[in-house]
Specification:
- Helix content is 59%, strand content 5%.
- With 162 residues, it is mainly α.
- It folds into 3 domains: 43 residues, no CATH class; 27 residues; 68 residues.
- The protein has a two-stranded antiparallel sheet.
- α4 runs antiparallel to α5.
- It is elongated.
- The N and C termini lie far apart (57 Å).
Length: 162
């Protein structure tokens, strides 16, 4: 019997944005995992329960009420910020590019093997954002220096005490 293997083509940034740090472990919520696999959450949970012998003992755990409420609060804040960002993006395409670079930077910092330096990262971002149409050239981000300045700013914000 020949089984066909499905390959999911999901950008790293999307997957990384769905990873949370809970109890000192990087985890994905069942709802987000089900969304990535395009299945119902209940069906995903049922499949895992039916096949528990295929998973390590610490593969899944139940959130406490407090952890669940914290997660809801994080998502609500993130959603509000996303709505605000989208409104700004409608008015300024360069803001959309900055948001893309920021999300990519966050993903890179979660998985630092991808780039060695901010300048390497910035160059890669420009390659991804470079327009196909030469007439669009001046309307888009075109400075490695600008991206590296953003990276430096984001690093400082990450280090700054709360």
């Amino acid at each position: 019997m020949n089984e066909e293997t499905k390959t999911l083509n999901i950008p790293d940034e999307v997957v990384l944005s769905k990873i949370y740090l809970i109890r000192g472990q990087k985890v994905m919520i069942d709802r987000d995992l089900a969304e990535l696999y395009k299945v119902a959450t209940g069906n995903l949970n049922l499949a895992v329960k039916r096949n528990m012998d295929r998973f390590p003992p610490d593969f899944m755990f139940q959130l406490t009420k407090e952890e669940f409420q914290d997660l809801i609060l994080q998502n609500a804040i993130s959603k509000k910020m996303s709505e605000y960002a989208k409104m700004r993006l409608l008015n300024d395409p360069k803001q959309a590019e900055k948001l893309f670079v920021k999300e990519s930077w966050d993903a890179w910092k979660s998985n630092p093997q991808q780039y060695t330096y901010n300048t390497t990262f910035a160059t890669a971002m420009l390659d991804k954002l470079r327009p196909d149409d030469p007439e669009e050239e001046g309307k888009h981000l075109s400075s490695v220096k600008k991206i590296t300045e953003w990276c430096t700013q984001w690093e400082r914000e990450k280090i700054a005490p709360s």
